[in-house]
Automatic annotation (TrEMBL):
Residues 302-438, 819-899 form the PII-uridylyltransferase/Glutamine-synthetase adenylyltransferase domain. This is Bifunctional glutamine synthetase adenylyltransferase/adenylyl-removing enzyme. InterPro entries: GlnE, GlnE_rpt_dom, NT_sf, PII_UdlTrfase/GS_AdlTrfase. Belongs to the GlnE family. Its EC number is 2.7.7.89, 2.7.7.42.
Length: 947
């Protein structure tokens, strides 16, 4: 609703406009300034500003040249900052206050006239406060140096004060008339070297006191910025300035939940900015835990309860900041989700609220429509808050009680008061309902059978196994014994009260969900193994207590997959995956998997990098396996992704090993190295928990030596490189072990050298390799190393596989090898089939494919490109070697056998499965296709090209 500019003696708003313009005309006349008061557009603009802000009118009256400037450029250009070095010490306060008032009035002008949106106003207010802090700090620092000298640490390096901004200034979203929350610190102890030396703490404390006084003290020119120093360690009772070391000790020993929220937005704004950023980087583990931190919700509940009590006590229902559905609830909503998830996702660690909400929505921790509604509410509430403060430059957050003030605020926003109240009520209800839902502890954990809850609380002294039997446990006595042992354990006995309360809520749900499992005793034992490991980490109990969805997923996982249950019990960090929103989205591709592994190498040392790489491997392989268990992804896609992940890990480990060799022995000019993957890794059909079949190649000048302090010749240098890789892949860290490695497929097997030169590898494949070694070569591929050597390997492999062979000899070699393997390895028995070695199983299918590739590659070089069995079958059909219908049936058989095999592996069961119609169909396809190879039916009846 635009403000009318017509005059009316009984219209209060028009009276305010008339008085304001009259005052400003007199001020302009006194200063002999030509200001176009009679210009209709300027008069209308000035009228709108006069309605919205007495502060702006007062500033224009004291500085009419500012109003003249606004009439010319509408405040597009910020006013130049004062040069404190050009004035005397006594002028600093006046210069800062006049500039702050003028810049603030310019921001009012642009905000009220809709020349800036609320985001620009908040950014302008933030920048103004920062510049005032920096100008004041720098001027005072120069004065202190002249009086006391530069503070230096024991190493002679300068020590400067760091001014941290917390709250909205730290977050870059300062409201119009807010105070600024500051904390003072300094990097190291030391002493100044001037004529009146001071220790670092005293020097920085006095500088901080002078800074606060210069900004905060009320003079005839008003104030610059209100300064609040109470958020420092130990609050008002604490020292004004602390060293970084003392700050770190405080947060380690005394840090409280509310301080995590406060320091989440911390930002160095004056003094030694670089040192401040380095300190905040080190403080990150205090703010952001490495795991999903649902314990932060309890801290927020406590903070919210205290604020609500204050609101009720002081009757602040109309407070749009602290009241129900106010700005603080939006801030808390975003911040607690950042604290919960930010330890795992760096994209969620931003200081500013609006980008944080957008990042949370992008990561699917908040529904997009909820985030949008909160953003709209936030912008509207912050605009209203600014207008409340712009009226008289007062730090107010409550709606005015005076009817005239209400009319002014509403008119400035183009609304009637009733319309404003209606919009406000809508936004506050949206915020309040969203915030309440966040803090509401879902009731799923209360739905457990009350008898089970009573049974658990009675342990270990009381409780009856019959209660478990009634709940559906078949082996109630054994389950009861396991639970009693758990309840007696020191970990449970010594739990703090809050953790015990959480466990009492969680356990009945876990028990009730475990009863219907195929093997309930096993499920309970797996759950107890996990709980033993997480009792000391209350955040994990909080996750299960606060998130019924995670609890349900955990029980499902524990009852269906021994492998994943074992992984979670050993590495509780994987519990985070049960609630990671990305787990329901598309799984990472090859490039993303490799990038995640490469990012682990950013750590400073090998041990840290190896730990990080293990965490990446554990997390991503768990996510892939869980997608397979849930049926969101097929076995072939999962096996391929597991192989890609292994590729990324091997490449990262190669880089770590190379770094170590370079440090110890230097480099070898012109040397090249490559890692080959054989077996399921080479064929991109890796299982969960599979080992890696690796072969190492190198190429270097014959007389080459490394250039380090302990030089090695090429063969020993590359042998040690390979040894380092095998050791690193198998090293046990706190985050697990990467992979077991099998190196027996190298030329000459266990008796051969660990690494082969390209020339010797080529010679071996041409002259001495057995047929079964060329079979293995069909699926071999380079997984890491120098591109040039990888290309050379491809040339050697192609030449070896494309060699024309005697079909009868090839057939006899493969049949003989397969018969020998089956006799030694097939564990099939009546009603139970060995998926890998049984007749019509995976190895039969692989042997058939390898036989056909070796027989036909000389005539069909396109068979040399694929490695994976499905792709090889497609290539054989495309080359006319296999009939299309046979190729299709074999691909289906492979998918079935692979899925059954991975399913068994996921539950830690041998790949022995009961016969079924699905399995019989798959075996029949393989047996029919490979009949001649296995010595049953003529091969020519199946193959389109009999050879």
């Amino acid at each position: 609703m635009p403000v009318s500019t017509t005059t009316s003696s009984d219209d209060p708003l028009q009276q305010i406009i008339a008085r304001a313009i009259e005052r400003l005309r007199h001020a302009a006349a006194r200063s002999a300034l030509d200001i176009p008061f009679d210009d209709p557009a300027f008069h209308a603009a000035l009228s709108r500003v006069a309605i919205a802000s007495d502060f702006a009118v007062d500033t224009f009256e004291r500085q009419p040249e500012l109003l003249q400037r606004l009439s010319l450029d509408a405040g597009t250009t910020p006013l130049p900052a004062p040069d404190l070095s050009a004035g005397s010490r006594d002028d600093w306060a006046r210069m800062l206050r006049r500039w702050r008032a003028a810049e603030s009035a310019r921001l009012v002008w642009r905000d009220v006239l809709d020349l800036d949106d609320v985001d620009a106003t908040l950014a302008g207010t933030t920048h103004l406060a920062e510049r005032c802090l920096q100008l004041a700090h720098d001027a005072l620092e120069a004065e202190f140096i002249a009086r006391h000298g530069v503070v230096r640490d024991s190493g002679g390096q300068p020590v400067r004060l760091v001014v941290f901004a917390l709250g909205k200034l730290g977050g870059g979203e300062l409201n119009f008339s807010s105070d600024v929350d500051l904390v003072y610190a300094y990097p190291h102890e030391g002493e100044s070297g001037g004529p009146r030396p001071l220790p670092a703490e005293t020097w920085c404390m006095r500088l901080g006191q002078a800074l606060a006084k210069l900004l905060d003290e009320v003079t005839v020119d008003g104030f610059c910025h209100r300064v609040d120093l109470r958020l420092r360690p130990f609050g008002g009772a604490g020292r004004l300035a602390l060293s970084f070391g003392a700050m770190e000790q405080y947060f380690q020993r005394e840090g409280r939940d509310w301080e995590r929220y406060a320091w989440q937005k911390a930002r160095p704004v004056a003094g030694d900015i670089a040192a401040g950023e380095a300190f905040l980087s080190g403080l990150r583990p205090f703010v952001y835990r490495r795991y999903l931190d649902f314990g932060a919700l309890d801290g927020l509940r406590g903070m919210k309860a205290a604020i609500s009590a204050e609101v009720a006590r002081k009757e602040l229902a109309d407070d749009i900041k602290r009241g129900r559905g106010g700005i603080r609830e939006i801030e808390f909503f975003a911040q607690v989700l950042q604290l919960i998830h930010g330890g795992r996702d760096a994209a969620l660690r931003g200081r500013r609220l609006q980008p944080a909400l957008q990042a949370l929505a992008a990561a699917r921790h908040v529904p997009a429509e909820t985030a949008q509604a909160l953003l709209e509410a936030y912008r509207w509430l912050r605009r209203l808050e600014n207008r409340l403060q712009m009226l008289r430059d007062a730090q107010v957050h409550a709606l005015p009680e005076e009817p005239l003030d209400r009319a002014r605020i509403a008119a400035g926003l183009g609304l009637s008061w009733d319309a404003l109240a209606q919009v406000l009520a809508h936004h506050r209800e949206v915020v309040a309902s969203t915030f309440d839902a966040l803090l509401h502890r879902e009731q799923a954990s209360r739905t457990a059978d009350c008898d089970l809850a009573g049974y658990w609380r009675a342990l270990p002294e009381a409780g009856e196994p019959a209660q478990l039997e009634a709940a559906g446990f078949g082996d109630a006595q054994a389950v009861d014994a396991a639970l009693r042992d758990f309840a007696r354990s020191p970990g449970v006995r010594d739990l703090p009260d809050i953790a015990r309360t959480r466990l009492e809520r969680v356990m009945p749900v876990l028990l009730q969900a475990s009863a219907p499992a195929d093997r309930p005793l096993e499920a309970v034992r797996r759950l107890l193994a996990l709980l033993h490991n997480v009792l000391r980490r209350s955040s994990y109990l909080a996750l299960l207590d606060e998130q019924p969805a995670a609890l349900a997923r955990l029980v499902d996982l524990m009852t269906r997959s021994a492998f994943l249950a074992e992984r979670v019990a050993m590495h509780p960090l994987l519990l985070d995956e049960l609630l990671d929103a990305r787990i329901e989205g598309p799984l990472p591709g090859r490039a993303q998997l490799h990038a995640a592994c490469e990012a682990a190498l950013a750590r400073d040392d090998v041990e840290a990098a190896l730990y990080a790489l293990n965490e990446v491997r554990q997390t991503l392989s768990f996510r892939i396996a869980l997608a397979m268990l849930d049926g969101r992804q097929g076995a072939q896609d999962s096996a391929r992704q597991l192989a890609w992940l292994a590729d990324g890990v091997v490449a990262a480990v190669l880089e770590l090993a190379r770094r170590g060799m370079h440090d110890s022995h230097g480099r070898i000019d012109g040397a090249r190295f490559a890692v080959l993957g054989y077996g399921s890794l080479g064929g991109e059909e890796l299982g969960v928990g599979s080992d890696l079949d690796l072969v190492f190649l190198y190429d270097a000048p014959a007389t080459a030596q490394s250039d380090g302090p302990r030089p090695l010749d090429a063969i020993r240098w590359h042998a040690r490189l390979a040894q380092k890789m095998v050791a690193l892949l198998g090293t046990v860290t706190g985050a697990g072990r990467l992979y077991e490695v099998d190196i027996r497929l190298r030329p000459d097997g266990a008796s051969g050298l660990l690494v082969s030169s390209l020339a010797s590898y080529d010679d071996y494949q041409r002259e001495r390799a057995w047929t079964w070694e060329h079979q293995a070569l069909v699926r071999a591929r380079a997984v890491a190393g120098d591109d040039g050597l990888v290309a050379e390997f491809e040339r050697v492999r192609a030449a070896a596989l494309a060699h024309r062979r005697d079909a009868d000899v090839l057939h006899d070699d493969i049949v003989s090898m397969r018969q020998r393997m089956r006799g030694e390895l097939d564990r099939s028995r009546d009603g139970v089939f060995d998926l890998k070695q049984g007749e019509g199983g995976l190895v039969d299918l692989e042997f058939l494919v390898q036989y056909l590739v070796l027989r036909e590659a000389h005539a069909s070089p396109e068979l040399l490109l694929p490695r994976a069995t499905p792709a090889l079958l497609e290539a054989l059909c495309a080359a006319g070697v296999l009939a299309a219908d046979i190729g299709r049936s074999l691909r289906e058989a492979h998918a079935t056998l692979l899925a059954l095999g991975l399913g068994q592996t996921l539950d830690r069961r041998p790949r022995l499965v009961p016969d079924s119609r699905r399995l019989q169909d798959a075996r029949a396809s393989v047996r029919a296709a490979g009949a001649s190879l296995l010595g049953i039916d003529p091969l020519a009846g199946v193959l389109a090209a009999s050879g």
